[in-house]
Design a protein that fits this description.
Pfam families: Retrotrans_gag. InterPro entries: Retrotrans_gag_dom. It comes from Mucuna pruriens (Velvet bean). This is Retrotransposon gag domain-containing protein. With 132 residues, this protein is an all-alpha fold. The protein has one domain. Helix 2 packs antiparallel against helix 3 and helix 3 crosses helix 6. The longest helix has 50 residues. The radius of gyration is 24 Å and the shape is elongated.
Length: 132
């Protein structure tokens, strides 16, 4: 019964396609981690064990992200248990998202300040020109 269900709703080609997506990266650490988790949830029978998923994830990261994760873990990520590695990556992805939001807010505030400064400079110029 299980095989019939899986064949009907999760053909071999669809499963292979989702496996390929699970093992590729084209985004930030947080986005990739979220995508990986969503893909795994859409195909729970992907038959990739947890340790291998972590290895695939880690292998595709940029060198900077790998170094950041290794530094946060206190050693190579692959030396940790699957559960510890998953917990660490989840925390880092969450922290990355929070700091990204702070940076976006800061950038918006900086833009407002720059606009106000430009407007103020223009007003001062008009005052100086009006006095001469």
């Amino acid at each position: 019964m299980k095989c019939i269900f899986l064949e009907k709703f999760f053909s071999a080609s669809r499963t292979a396609s989702i496996r390929k997506k699970i093992c590729g990266i084209r985004e930030t650490l947080r986005e990739y981690w979220e995508r990986l988790n969503k893909l795994c949830a859409t195909c729970p029978h992907h038959q990739i064990n947890e340790q291998l998923l972590i290895q695939y994830f880690y292998k595709e990261l940029s060198m900077m992200d790998k170094n950041m994760i290794d530094a946060a873990s206190g050693r190579a990520l692959m030396d940790k248990t699957s559960a510890a590695a998953r917990h660490l990556i989840s925390n880092m992805a969450s922290n990355t998202h929070q700091s990204q939001m702070v940076n976006e807010i800061g950038a918006a505030s900086n833009q407002r300040l720059e606009n106000q400064l430009t407007e103020l400079t223009s007003l001062v110029r008009q005052l100086v020109v009006g006095k001469h």
